[in-house]
Amino acid sequence: xxxxxxxxxxxxxxxxxxxxxxxxxxxxxxxxxxxxxxxxxxxxxxxxxxxxxxxxxxxxxxxxxxxxxxxxxxxxxxxxxxxxxxxxxxxxxxxxxxxxxxxxxxxxxxxxxxxxxxxxxxxxxxxxxxxxxxxxxxxxxxxxxxxxxxxxxxxxxxxxxxxxxxxxxxxxxxxxxxxxxxxxxxxxxxxxxxxxxxxxxxxxxxxxxxxxxxxxxxxxxxxxxxxxxxxxxxxxxxxxxxxxxxxxxxxxxxxxxxxxxxxxxxxxxxxxxxxxxxxxxxxxxx
Length: 286
Hints:
It is built from nine helices and no strands. By secondary structure, it is an all-alpha fold. The longest helix has 42 residues, at 101-142. The protein is elongated and about 120 Å long.
């Protein structure tokens, strides 16, 4: 049985496939090879077996209305190659508002808010730390208070005069009561959770938006600092379990990581402002 080839069908298939893949991607050598294999398979399978010259009087050729099942793997490979060869378009309009100025400005606005919120979270954390450290100060001061002489029945020999140490203890005790009323522990935990969730989301979202607008990322101080800040958020959050168990080392490391985070965040602001200016220069509303 001889498989016949239909040149006209091959040509139509080749032209159609080329136009289709060009509409979503650049034609690469790999794409050309698979277009050829695909069209050859379809054109070859579109014609049934034919009789040789000694049997020209036999039944006419039969044309199939669809390719054989073994054509499907080739079609599948072609589609996969077409999809994997899609190149990002730089502000070409294919993504509509996703490439516009509106979405591009969301990232700097959100990150500005997160920077201020980071400072607020740091304040909450410091206040919660004060609740613990004040109690330690009180305990140390109590050790310095001199015992008062008393009679056998337990009454003081003479009315005690409040010492400066006792006055300090009273002051710190009142301050600690006020701090406890502020619920700084829960507020700090909630603020940290919000920073971790929204921060990671927006850090990734900023990179995605840049890729949609320009077709690439721009390795540099802003990108590297942003990646470091994201890692520091995660690292600081990972220390919460040992901190809850009373590890002073974990607490100190948590503070150090967050201080470094704030410094990187502040250092990143000028580079982010330069990017905002470029957004206004190279994008349009919306």
